[in-house]
Specification:
The protein is mainly α and 208 residues long. The protein contains twelve helices and no strands.
Amino acid sequence: MLSVGLILAVLIVLGVLSNAFTVLALSGIIVVIGYKFKDLYIRAYIFYTVAFIVTVLGIVFYKDFYTRIIQGGLLGYSFFLVVMFVGVLPNKSVLARNIKRNRGMFSILGFIFITCHAYLHLFTSFGEINLFGLASYVIMVPLTIISFKVIRTEITPKDWFAIQKAAYAIYVLLFVHLFLVSNNENRVVYAVIGALYINNRVLKEIRK
């Protein structure tokens, strides 16, 4: 499985993939890491620090080709895609169990990385502001704050699951945002991803 992650990393570095396939490749790498190293969340603060530094570098060097996956929000989208799809995997599968241990950390990392993309669009001439993207980011802020363990422990499980339902609004807004700002090739890929998610979510609800 690690060899698959390495191949995906090489393709990303070579820059031969479209944005949508870059998101899928990055998601694949995250899945491999989450599966092989299921206890990463124990050292979450280290990953948050690294992500913050990388995000700042992405903002400072936003014209650099090598930071494009940060600037364009691709890495942030990839973390959210993994968080999104692990929720529709069979609960008893080893893949789902391993990744779910890191799911909270992945969602926070997704927010940190996507902040570079949001900042550049809001405060620089990097590109136009998309209202759907802005709305999804605004909803992410409180959800990310309460996802930190120190705050989450103060919330009852019932309230926690109720609040997390807002994540579905983020997913919808993100997909609409991606669909609107992408070219036709990427739109097809995003449409397939969205359809697969909806299909698996419906099937999982039926099987409950």
